[in-house]
Design goal:
The chain is an all-alpha fold and 288 residues long. 55% of the residues lie in helices and 1% in strands. The relative contact order is 0.11.
């Protein structure tokens, strides 16, 4: 059997039971999951997604919420600008698309915060369309199984899309499942550091496995740290604002981080990004 067939059969019996994959999930639910899953583990996303969809089951419901409520509900998922972009996308969907998430990739990409990957994921997983969906996991599976490389290296957008497109069956529904299967395989079996080749449904056709799994020696993406970074400081400051019942004095934010220069820089960036606002009396709060 060819790689797509092996992945298809494996996925149908081994896919994780994730809430946004269950029957009845709307394209809106898929869009929300894709925003939340960007650079965030599934285990952290799942409870937030469930609560979010209970509170805001449609784009118009989210659009009617305040940005402060949206940021509080986002909690510690990280990269909180995603929450505001999702809120803005909901406003556009409610206003311009009759409260229905578009199915066309180009129209999806025109929404705030929706890039090529997210647009293709919504088209494939929300609408069952034949669209190549390429994330880090998919790139790694293709690099190993097709090209015999231990890792995918830096992204090559057009080439990566072409690689996956060549693997997809011609009919929409089956192609959408294969896309999900490639992603799942990379997430749980063909992992970056400890691939479980003995459990892989594609091991017999995998070029990397057939070559003896040679070590990867090509360029790698730099690993981003977190401790002591501006991202950590911004998170600390947002924690203060999220946990407060109302606006807080500057002293409450000063207590969140000892480095005054870095703290001031990060607070200024939160204001610029619209994640915080300063009131006339000098106090700070989440945006309305």
């Amino acid at each position: 059997m060819a790689l797509p067939d092996l992945v298809l059969h494996w996925y149908r019996s081994h896919a994780r039971d994730l809430p946004w994959r269950r029957e009845g999930t709307t394209p809106w639910g898929v869009l929300v999951s894709e925003f939340m899953l960007q650079q965030t583990p599934v285990a952290r996303v799942e409870p937030v997604w469930i609560a979010w969809m209970r509170e805001w089951p449609t784009p118009s419901a989210l659009a009617a919420a305040s940005r402060a409520d949206v940021l509080r509900a986002w909690g510690k998922l990280g990269y909180p600008r995603r929450a505001l972009r999702l809120h803005a996308a909901a406003e556009t969907i409610a206003r311009e698309h009759g409260d229905v998430v578009p199915s066309d990739v180009d129209t999806l990409e025109a929404l705030p915060g929706v890039g090529s990957y997210t647009a293709r994921a919504v088209a494939a997983f929300g609408y069952g369309r034949r669209r190549p969906v390429v994330d880090t996991n998919v790139r790694r599976v293709v690099a190993r199984a097709v090209h015999g490389h231990g890792d995918a290296g830096p992204a090559r957008t057009k080439a990566d899309l072409a690689d996956v497109d060549a693997l997809l069956p011609s009919d929409d529904a089956t192609a959408a499942v294969v896309s999900a299967g490639l992603m799942e395989l990379g997430a749980v079996v063909c992992t970056a550091r400890a691939p479980r080749c003995e459990d892989c449904p594609a091991r017999a056709v995998c070029a990397w496995n057939g070559a003896g799994r040679p070590a990867y020696s090509g360029p790698r993406r730099p690993v981003q740290g977190f401790a002591g970074t501006d991202r950590q400081v911004r998170g600390r400051l947002l924690d203060v604002l999220r946990d407060a019942p109302g606006p807080v004095d500057r002293s409450a934010l000063d207590a969140a981080w000892s480095d005054a220069g870095q703290r001031d820089r990060c607070l200024a960036s939160l204001l610029v990004d619209g994640l915080a606002e300063q009131h006339d009396d000098g106090r700070f709060a989440l945006p309305v």
